[in-house]
Amino acid sequence: MKVYSFLGLFLLSSAVSAHPGGHGNEKSLEARKELISRVSNLDHCHGRMAASGIQTKAVERRSKLASKLSKRDLSSFTRRGTDPVFVDHEADLSLTATTTLEEIFASNHCVVLFPEEEEGSYHHHSDMDGEYIRSNIAEDQVGIPVTLDLQFIDVETCEPVQGVAIEIWSCNSTGVYSGVVIEGNGDADPANINSTFMRGAQFTDKIGAVQFETIFPGHYYPRATHVHVFVHLDVEKFPNGTIRGDTAAHVGQLYFDQTLIAAVEATYPYTTNTQQFTYNKDDWLLGMDAVRGWQADPFLEYVRLGDSIEDGLLAWISMGVNMSFTRDVWAAATLYPTAGYRHPAKIMMMACQAS
């Protein structure tokens, strides 16, 4: 496994340097160094966010979501711990009736999205039938329900990023991405090119927030369980409720606590996933982030909404973005009005990356 990971990193460095915005671009490398030297989290924004009411509004929004979705009392919620992200840890913390909403729902960590991060597995865009603007992206997929509350803050101004398109995508419970046909992505069913499950986009509101309803993603080799996030700029909106954006995006991936993943993987239909499992501590991209010296925590905070994991989750995070840096993005497939179309060159690169 280690040999495969190192091979993947070698192929990644070669493949990425072949397109604009990749790690081989000297200008992008300098931009990354500059950004990292200035900020790797939102610590410098906490005071301003508190004074402006951004934090209070986030707490209110998340508590209302939890009250609407929950199947038990607020005092029995559980939340992930604060142990290092590469160490397996128990997520439950004891909460009492006197625990404040701020203690539960205030996001005390964040991940900064870098424009040079890889878009990763099977990014998908479209033309007249683009990425759908929608909050519920699960479609007919079966799995543990998850409501994601994502907030985006400009790391330079400490203000909410308003009115930008946020795209997310992930695999389903058995590790298959929609809209892409390639060996290793399920059984490479040709009909999958026209599917759109677990993909969608929304525009941030006045406090830089969006919510998505989805299911907990499954796993596939050699990646840990994750969700992809894009911050698009200059998107084109179409009459059929879709968007397309190929430029100026910030990108990142969000992860889940290992104990939470274990609880989910023990339920149906995740138990039918036959792909090899990868732990957070063995994920090569998480490892690369550590090597780069990024201090931000890309793990979602969460509460369980009932006594059973199958009752679902509310998960949230605040993400810092630098609106000064942009890049072009690639897509593995395009969904046109009549059918989907895959991009062989991008598929080949993704197969090499195994990301």
Automatic annotation (TrEMBL):
Pfam families: Dioxygenase_C (PF00775). This is Intradiol ring-cleavage dioxygenases domain-containing protein. Keywords: Signal. One of its GO terms (molecular function) is ferric iron binding. The keyword Membrane does not apply. Transmembrane segments: none annotated. Residues 1-18 form the signal peptide. It comes from Talaromyces stipitatus (strain ATCC 10500 / CBS 375.48 / QM 6759 / NRRL 1006) (Penicillium stipitatum). InterPro entries: Intradiol_dOase_C (IPR000627), Intradiol_dOase_core (IPR015889).
